[in-house]
Design brief:
By secondary structure, this protein is α+β, with helices and mostly antiparallel strands. It is built from seven helices and 14 strands. It has two domains: 3-147, Fructose-1,6-Bisphosphatase, Chain A, domain 1 (2-Layer Sandwich); 158-250, D-Maltodextrin-Binding Protein, domain 2. The protein has helices at 3-26, 43-59, 68-72, 92-97, 168-175, 189-195, 210-222, and strands at residues 32-34, 40-42, 65-67, 82-90, 103-110, 113-121, 126-131, 135-140, 143-147, 158-162, 181-185, 201-204, 226-229, 247-250. The protein is globular and about 45 Å long.
Amino acid sequence: MTSFAQDLQTLGRIAEEAGAKIMDIYGTAFEADTKADSSPVTAADVAAEAIIIAGLRKHFAEIPIVAEEQAAAGHVEKIGARFFLVDPLDGTKEFISRNGEFTVNIGLIENGVPTMGVVFAPALGELFLGRVGEGAFRVVKGVTDKIAVRPAPSEGPVGLASRSHRDPETEAFIAKQNCSAISNAGSSLKFCRVAEGKADLYPRFGRTMEWDTAAGHAVLSAAGGSVTNTDGSPFLYGKMGFANPAFIARGK
């Protein structure tokens, strides 16, 4: 087994362990609190992040970790050329509304670029893994399939938009793309739907943070897609404050 495959499998196992804890809480009468930035947080976010950090410390001890809930509490590790970005529960609003479209995200950044990532949707039983240059994969019920973006459709692209974070700029951009269909989806699943060839375009003009996008970006890049700034320039990580500008995620 190659080292990249071992690393991906390790990240997948960590994400699945965190996802199992999330589902334990999902089945209870949990409560949601509000963070300083007005976003929601639950016990599942905190518990899943603790599991992920412990797993990364065990298997990748030399690599710094920037994780959403720690960052919200003011604890941000000093990063170098390589670091992990962790969103333990992306789509907390989807978790609270119990629609299943929430994910566990772990992405590795190297020199500003996401090179490896896993996205796990525990309620849907879908695990996506990708390493740039090595390929992307979808695992369901223990069956692994290689995935790739599809050729550009002649009838116009299928567009994706956030289920919980629509904004006028995104709507205006989509309207100009001559999309044959537009679907809504929650969390980083949108990157994965493009990566597996079920959609072609995911624009986002509203606010996101680097931990929201790193893992999905890595999976999409590994599947042959791209994420760029709106002017087509590279979409990079390790920015001051870890806030993202607008971006466009594409298949071919």
